[in-house]
Amino acid sequence: MSSQTIWYLENINVADIFCDDKLKGSGDGVVNKKYEKGAIIYQPDQFADSIFLIRSGKVKIGSQGDSGKEIVKAILGPGEVFGERSIIGDHMYNDSAIAVDDSEISILSSSRLKSMMKEHNGLSLFFMKLMGSRVLEMEQRLESLIFKDSRTRIVEYLLNLIDKKGQRIGYEWVVRNFITHQEIANLTATSRQSVTTLLNDLRNEGVLTFDRKRLLIRNLDKLKRLIV
């Protein structure tokens, strides 16, 4: 399992891309902006001209289905990038980005980023892998929604969370800035009650423990066996 987040991939420090010092004099620098909880960062049919890096807080990426029900695609935290569709020729965003908590976001124009990508092959590779991984995640979630029950979907989400953001501490794994039960429910198309019940059961069995700040997996092998 990887203990790295999206900050680093193929030796690219994404936070470095959004460094004001490196872009001074370019005429197209970084804007750092604060968003209050619930603020809309962008929405569907808005002109797609920027790429975003979360410095602090959380951001929800989602859209509305034909019935008007919200579909949550991802909940992102510090160090993660979004708005990447703006660099592949899309003129409009096809989803919305909303601050889940009070958040600080660094914003870089997609035109400036495209220029940087021409100069650095590693940067192009980073965003190709980022977009590819997110497409794969959505395909896996769709398959899970069709073929798997709610309990399995929640367990799979926890395992994917450990894989993406977990840090190993001895024989245990920790995820910091753990999201809420309702957010997990939104991402797994389950109910808050189902998430709470399962997490409490797993805590009672000694598989994990959690609070508002972190998730600690005490027995990863046992958690994996729940979906075999």
How would you sum up this structure, described in words?
This protein is of the alpha+beta class and 228 residues long. Helix content is 39%, strand content 26%. It has eight helices and 14 strands. It has a four-stranded antiparallel β-sheet. It has a four-stranded antiparallel β-sheet with strand order 4-9-6-7. The chain starts with 7 loop residues before the first strand and ends with a helix. 25% of the residues are buried. Residues 1-12 and 23-27 have low confidence and may be disordered.
What keyword list fits this structure?
disordered N terminus; single chain; alpha+beta; 39% helix; 4-stranded antiparallel sheet
Summarize the structure in short.
By secondary structure, the chain is α+β, with helices and mostly antiparallel strands. The protein contains eight helices and 14 strands. The protein is globular.
Q: How many β-strand stretches?
A: 14
Q: What is the end-to-end distance?
A: 18 Å
Q: How would you describe the shape?
A: globular
Strand order of the largest sheet: 3-10-5-8
Q: List the secondary-structure elements in sequence, H or E.
A: EEHHEEEEEEEEHHHEEHHEEH
Helicity, as a percent range: 25-40%
What's the mean pLDDT score? Answer: 84
**Major sheet characteristics:** 4 strands, antiparallel
Fold blueprint:
Blueprint: E1 8-9, E2 12-13, H1 14-17, H2 20-23, E3 31-35, E4 40-42, E5 50-56, E6 59-64, E7 70-76, E8 81-82, E9 96-99, E10 103-109, H3 110-119, H4 121-147, H5 150-165, E11 167-169, E12 172-176, H6 181-188, H7 192-204, E13 208-210, E14 214-217, H8 220-225
Antiparallel strand pairs: 1-2, 3-10, 4-9, 5-8, 5-10, 6-7, 6-9, 11-12, 12-14, 13-14
Helix pairs in contact: 3-4, 5-6, 6-7
